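Homework-ish question, so no full write-ups if that breaks the rules, but can someone show me the predicted structure for this set?
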Amino acid sequence: MIDTDTSLPRDYIDKKGRKIIIRPYEEKDFPRLKEMYDVFEPKGLEAGLPPIENHVRKQWLHSVTKSFYSILALYRGKVIGHAGLDLSAPNQCPEYLIFIKQGYRDAGIGTAMSEIMRQLAETTGCPKVWLTVRSANTRAIRVFEKVSFRFRGVIDIQREMELIIKKKPSQNKKTRSSSKLTL
Ligand SMILES: CC(C)(COP(=O)(O)OP(=O)(O)OC[C@H]1O[C@@H](n2cnc3c(N)ncnc32)[C@H](O)[C@@H]1OP(=O)(O)O)[C@@H](O)C(=O)NCCC(=O)NCCS
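A: Not a homework solution, just the prediction itself:
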């Protein structure tokens, strides 16, 4: 069953019994987030991400951490998961991305982070969130469908999925600029 607790930071005991801390990204986390992506495998598989070349990866990460609202999953002080919502363009629906380090996949962490991000997206006032994913990435698709993403557009090697945000009655008057992302 999907956990509906979005308060952060929070502890999450994964399917292997490890205590994972999920919390918002802070600027000081950059080196350890970069460390996760430096050893991340496979690189470049999902729309070229995370970039294979070191300098491109560093540039991409600078841009993502600047324009995305990010949350991290940490195990024993090391970053093992990163999820982000692109809030850089105020009038556009945000893109979602998520990467879980090898060795920590299939333990429920991606689902837990995506569920938190889904609920968080509800506070932004945006009507939908979208992402692209390879059709062959059935594990990612399973996770996205579990948190209510659905396919849109043409059937191809690369697919788009979107999540329609259900507005809560109390949020009907909320705009993105007045939204609070600090949970
Ligand atoms: C995709 C990803 C984010 C998912 O996160 P995760 O922590 O591994 O996922 P979870 O453990 O929460 O859930 C995986 C689900 O997929 C299922 N699954 C595992 N392998 C599968 C497969 N080959 N096909 C379909 N479902 C699969 C699991 O059984 C589980 O479902 P369940 O909870 O109903 O049993 C993570 O694996 C990852 O980062 N992969 C590499 C990068 C990537 O693909 N990012 C997404 C880019 S769009």
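Now go work out the reasoning yourself. Hint: Strands lie at 10-13, 19-24, 68-75, 78-86, 96-100, 128-134, 150-152, 158-164.
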